[in-house]
Amino acid sequence: MTSSDNNTPLTKNMLLYLKGQSVCCKDSTLGAYKIGLRHFSHFMESCGLTVENLVASDISAFLQHICSLKLAPYTRLNYFLIVRKYLAWEVDSQRVSEKILEEFVRSKLPKVPEYLPRPLGAETDLELQRRCQISRTPYALMFLLLRNTGLRISELINLPFDPLVTLNKATFLKVPLGKMNTERMVPLSTQTIEIIRKIQKAYPICPNQCSKQRLIGLTGSISTVRGHLYYYYKKITAEMTDQNKNITFHRLRHTYATTLLSAGVSIVSIMKLLGHRRIEMSLRYAKVTPNHLRDEYLKAVAVIENQAGIQVTTTKTKSADWHPSEIIEHLRAFTNKAAKLDARNKKNILRKITRLKIDIAAITFDQKFKMTDL
After folding, report:
1. 362 CB contacts (<8 Å, ≥6 apart)?
2. Which whole-number Å values give the CA distances from 47 to 43, 66, 185, 312, in the listed order?
3. Least confident of 174-188, 289-303, 355-369
4. Pick from 229, 75, 262, 236: which is nearest to 151 by CA?
5. H or E stretch covering 170
6. Coil, strand or helix at 166
7. Helix (H, G, I), strand (E, B) or coil at 306
8. ∠ CA 273-278-283 to the nearest 5 degrees?
9. Which end of the chain is more exposed for a tag (fewer CB within 10 A), N or C?
10. Domain 3-108 is found in CATH 1.10.150.130
11. CA torsion sign, 248 to 195 to 226 to 177?
């Protein structure tokens, strides 16, 4: 926000609108509303406009004004949506024509990029965990907890001193109200429970600003504590990068989600573990785990074929110099080269052989098999 925007006072109606929104919005949300409305107030003041004499072209001009500012794509979009919500309130109060809202159709809103999650590569992930495990600072335990639970950094900071809950003889991490204003329960491994116990035993970590109201024992605002933690995080991740990007706190959350998804956890479960409100937020992780999607697809195809009465038969084999999947690959290549079939039937046969190869490749054999045994 420019200094002129920041100094522009909100109109009387805007203040009245915000007072009404304070009943159902968090303070952080109201803060964002104030910033967006100040942009709009500054625009109207500079153009000599009032809410009552707004026309469609004024909204288009405001959109151009917002797009000209050096703002992140999501920020531009949010400011525009904030103004739309405010003007809808003005429409309900019959101070603004309903036609004004037609200028806020999706096709006229600023387009925002859809970034993929950025999980750490397997080697980087293992190296980070190794460094945290051998480190003597208790802050390293907090970073391991982030990696093992998929918490946002703000959620870690706000965890109560004893966040563990036992249900049906299983232990969970209870994550309090946070960014999405929802609570959730995260299942824990024995190792992660031990990490939490070690963090508790390390109290007080920083005697000058300690409090048992939080698991990490640090008092202060979210931004202040985050900066304190990041100082130690940079020490542990010194000279480490992944995909030419810095290893931020949030990438640990991405790594947690994609690792579980690759291991077979469903998208719905990922949604619950991460505390997402909409399934679309979780579906982004599927885009970076194509192997998981492939496995799900092949399982579905197998079910469909079984329902149709189509059976793919295999014989039991054991590994030796050749892995059985390699033998099947040779069979696929030979079929493709020499089978006297029409194009459609050959394609179907090759697809079945490929599925068989993938299934066999996933099997561990405990006995040897030789081609001479056939």
Report:
1. none
2. 6, 14, 51, 73
3. 289-303
4. 229
5. strand 170-175
6. strand
7. helix
8. 75
9. C
10. yes
11. positive
Best CA proximity match to 124, nearest among 258, 270, 265, 230: 258
Q: Sign of dihedral through CA atoms 228, 234, 236, 242?
A: positive
Sequence length of the chain is 374
The helix (H) or strand (E) run that includes residue 185 is strand 184-187
Residue reference for tokens 């209870």: 174
- Range with the poorest average pLDDT among 82-86, 146-150, 177-181: 177-181
Domain span(s) for CATH 1.10.150.130 in the chain: 3-108
Contact 240, 107 (CB under 8 A): no
Domain span(s) for CATH 1.10.443.10 in the chain? 122-289
Neighbours of 348 (CB within 10 A): 12
Q: Which amino acid is at 8?
A: T
Q: What topology does CATH give the domain 122-289?
A: hpI Integrase; Chain A (1.10.443)
* Cβ–Cβ under 8 Å, residues 373 and 319: no
Concatenate the DSSP letters of all residues of 116-156 into one string.
Answer: PP-PPPHHHHHHHHHHHHH--STHHHHHHHHHHH---HHHH
Can you say how many angstroms the Cα of residue 208 is from the centroid of all Cα atoms in its chain? 35
* pLDDT tens track for 305-343: 566 544 444 444 344 556 777 778 778 788 888 888 888
Phi, psi of 287 (to 5 degrees): -70, -20
How many whole angstroms separate alpha carbon 194 and alpha carbon 188? 10
By the 10 Å C-beta count (0-12 exposed, 13-18 middle, 19+ buried), 306 is classed as exposed
Is the bond preceding residue 204 a cis peptide, omega within 30 degrees? yes
Give the residue carrying structure tokens 């968090």: 26
Contact by Cβ (8 Å): 275, 178: yes
Instruction: With H, G, I as helix, E, B as strand and everything else as coil, classify residue 366.
Output: coil
What does pTM read for this prediction? 0.65
Angle at which helices 222-236 and 122-134 cross, to 10°: 100
